[in-house]
Amino acid sequence: MRSSVVNLDTIEFFSRFLKDFPQGQTQYCERFSSDPARWNLYPNLNYAGLFYAIGNLLEVFPLITTGQTAIGEAVLDTLKALMMFLDRDTLEQLPLLLASNIGVLPNELDKQIVHLLADTVLPFAINEETFIKLSVPGVLMLVLQQAHDPSLHTWIMEGTMNCSPNIYEDLVQVIARGTSESRVAAANLLLHYWPFPNPHIIHRKIIQYKVHAWQRIPCQSTTCADKGPSVKSCYDPVICADVADTSPPVFLCRRCAENVIAERKAPMRILTQPMQASSATCQNKVS
Fold it and tell me: What Pfam families does the database record attribute to this sequence (predicted)?
């Protein structure tokens, strides 16, 4: 319980700082950069030390007997707030740390972990300045193996597609070197997203695995009554703290996003929605 209090205090510290984040510098919240100007915006604190302390806490997490869900949520919220303050070497460890704790943290947090990976961490961290692209096969293998909800498999796949090129190569690596559970899921996802143009090339047998659609998280605005699916995201730290009491990004439904744009003139990003199943046969009626 003491760890939970420490984590909540940490979140409160980051929230206070983010509310005073300089205007016009939100690009540092959207994508990792090694630009020295980025570090001048942050207090000079031991962010890596906090990251490793959280890692040590997660190693003994199964020994915690009470309040696991609350502590797990606090840890994930802290990691989200901490992400943009990390140096490159520490940031590169974050995706695998999150993915490896699926099955360790309570099952009801699996969706939050995948959301954090697919919609926040990987889009922020994958670029030419980091080597996180090399971690993608490991992240996919861990999610496909440990997450028992198939909709989380398509979520991590489509989220990674948005920020990582040639994701099919990472799937092939999982098929070649992954665990038996992850291989089955990876093979079916590969054929789902990149189907053979001629369905008669192979005869697929009936298998237990089935691809499931995923859904965007509900609107995070604290004043939203409908809690419809999120369609836009905002990276302005002040707006994120005011609208949803969270660190960037905040995910909003259409109505709340329009209200924020009208009142704050804040830039928004359109979120890609779950993909429709692709056809394995040509849909051109003339051919």
Answer: UNC-79
